[in-house]
TrEMBL record:
UniProt-listed PANTHER family: 102 KBASES UNSTABLE REGION: FROM 1 TO 119443 (PTHR42978:SF2), QUORUM-QUENCHING LACTONASE YTNP-RELATED-RELATED (PTHR42978)
Presence of keyword Hydrolase: yes
Keywords: Hydrolase, Metal-binding, Zinc
Protein name as it appears in the record: Lactamase
Length: 88
């Protein structure tokens, strides 16, 4: 939804943890975790608002289906800090 053709990457890290690098699919983990939508002006930045909403719902469902999975948006420092505290 944010930009066309955006992709994520599901990998295992050096500690054998599953990680989804979801890039700019969301900017904050609160968006997918509790379906907290960005402020309405954000829609102006979206290439496709409905696709963005579908992606958020997919991430939300994925987080419930795979609670062990770390979903890391590129711009969500709290998520990155929780995942890898030594990166601070």
């Amino acid at each position: 939804g944010h930009v066309p053709g955006q992709m994520g990457l599901w990998v295992r890290d050096q500690h054998d943890r599953e990680v989804l690098l979801c890039a700019d699919a969301v900017w904050s983990s609160a968006t997918w975790a509790s379906l907290q939508w960005p402020a309405w002006p954000t829609r102006l930045l979206m290439h496709d608002w409905r696709a963005f909403q579908r992606t958020v719902h997919r991430l939300h469902a994925l987080s419930h289906a795979h609670p062990e999975l770390a979903i890391l948006p590129s711009h969500c420092q709290p998520s990155l800090d929780r995942y890898q505290p030594e990166w601070r």
